[in-house]
Specification:
The protein contains 15 helices and 17 strands. By secondary structure, the protein is an alpha/beta fold. The longest helix has 13 residues. Bound molecules: NADP nicotinamide-adenine-dinucleotide phosphate (NAP).
């Protein structure tokens, strides 16, 4: 087995050995990822109990997230019923909205785990029509070592957490699943990429970026592109995909150091500090001929500043509202139009109309039927060195609370924050 993993920086976030390690950086492709994690011997080694982190109390209006909000419990191993599989959770992605889900109105209830984490898991036992013993799958999972899942998310008893289940005929044909999130990875993918890379580049971050750039395309070398949230998970992917098309790409970071990272590490043409007082002037200098494409996962003041400098017939992809989330506001009503929900202001809407800008705003799940196409195209970029995973992995089940907290405590993990359940 060959293993090569390249980290650009290593921060001992939680101190000395034995505590959580947070590895920030770029992970390149790795072969034969899985045998070292136990392989087929797992079924025989399956313990009798499940370890689980549950919500001990809701996050309050002050948005403070501390160790007191988490409690470790041990429960009997669940028995699978017809239509279910027992999985061992290997690694989960933490999403920007996790803290909001822990509030009184959120979906994570006191005494329960957060079931919404998009995860990489190994099937241990199965009575599910799609998932076979030994399969490596993605599914929504909790902060628990084992759990049941199902490829049939129309079942009410399967806590999927990623929106209402829907039928996607094409995915069903490819995957034997009616789920937007539960999916069996193809062997070709497992041979090439480790779980963290699979869940970053081929998880919601890479998929959102791929579909977004595709729908704003074709991206041409002459395009002048701004990508917000570039130090975060989706933005880092989108910026690289645009750069691979030969376009001029400007990214953003919160503070001078993170703006510099956008150039030094992500290799974008420019990195601007979105918090700088003179951001309008900096944008003007970076885009003397205006902006053709804006890929926006943040909304907020930066997006207004960018929109003002967009060219007629431009393209605007709005996929998220990180500015609002990290500004500690409650999420807006889901009845608002999608772009509004992502933080689009009236001024931006007017600019879009007046300048005949094409707007794309959706959840990546609407493109679930195109997953294989996305995997293949993203793999081409990975295998030619034009795209790299940008992820920060916190290792160790005992470190899950600290890992989740690192999303909000100013540690500022680069790219996708992921929790690997075994150290
Ligand atoms: N539509 C979809 O299908 C889809 C899929 C995935 C995610 N999303 C949504 O997209 C958004 C971003 O997700 P993500 O996973 O990429 O988040 P993330 O990894 O947490 O990254 C957040 C990014 O936003 C930047 N940021 C924070 N506050 C900002 C502000 N006030 N102004 C400008 N930039 C700011 C951060 O920069 P610094 O850290 O450098 O300050 C960071 O680059 C979230 O709202 C998420 O829910 C939507």
């Amino acid at each position: 087995m060959t293993t090569e993993s390249k980290s650009v920086s290593r921060r001992g976030l939680f101190g000395a050995a034995g505590k959580a390690t947070l590895v920030a950086g770029i992970a390149s492709s790795i072969t034969a990822p899985f045998r070292s994690l136990g392989g087929v011997a797992w079924a025989a080694e399956t313990p009798k109990t499940v370890k689980k982190w549950i919500l001990a109390k809701n996050v309050g209006d002050d948005n403070k997230l501390t160790l007191d909000h988490f409690k470790l419990v041990e429960e009997p191993m669940p028995q699978i019923k017809q239509g279910e599989a027992l999985v061992k959770v290997i690694l989960c992605n933490i999403h920007a909205n996790t803290r909001n889900l822990m509030k009184a109105k959120g979906s994570t209830k006191v005494g329960e785990t957060d079931k919404t984490n998009y995860s990489f898991a190994k099937v241990i036992q199965s009575r599910d029509k799609t998932f076979k013993e030994g399969d490596s799958i993605t599914c929504a999972a909790g902060w628990n070592t084992y759990q049941t899942t199902s490829s049939d998310l129309s079942r009410e008893d399967v806590g999927a957490g990623h929106g209402a289940p829907r039928e996607f005929a094409l995915v069903e044909e490819l995957n034997g699943s009616n789920s937007r999130t539960a999916y069996v990875f193809r062997p070709v993918m497992l041979k090439q990429f480790t779980p963290d890379v699979l869940m970053d580049v081929y998880g919601t971050s890479g998929l959102t970026a791929y579909y977004g750039v595709r729908e704003c395309g074709p991206i041409m070398p002459r395009d002048r592109i701004a990508v917000s949230g570039t130090t975060g998970s989706v933005g880092a992917m989108a910026a690289q995909i645009c750069k691979a098309r030969g376009a001029y790409v400007v990214g953003f970071g919160g503070g001078a150091e993170r703006a510099k990272w956008v150039v030094d590490t992500l290799k974008m043409d420019k990195g601007l500090d979105y918090r700088a007082a003179d951001i309008d002037a900096q944008l003007k200098a970076a885009f003397p001929d205006g902006i053709d494409v804006y890929i926006d996962g943040t909304g907020g003041p930066l997006s207004e500043a960018v929109a003002k400098q967009m060219n007629r017939d431009g393209r605007y992809f709005s996929y998220g509202g990180a500015a609002q989330i990290y500004k500690d506001l409650q999420p807006t009503s889901s009845s608002m139009a999608q772009a509004k929900e992502f933080g689009m202001t009236d001024l931006i809407e007017k600019i879009i109309k007046d300048r005949h800008i094409k707007l794309e705003a959706w959840n990546q799940a609407v493109w679930a039927q195109d997953r294989i196409e996305a995997e293949n195209k993203l793999s081409q970029l990975m295998n030619t060195g034009k795209l790299k995973a940008i992820n920060t992995v916190v290792k160790g089940f005992e470190n899950i609370p600290k890992g989740v907290m690192s999303q909000y405590d100013g540690s500022n993990p680069y790219g996708k924050l992921q929790l690997q359940y075994e150290a």
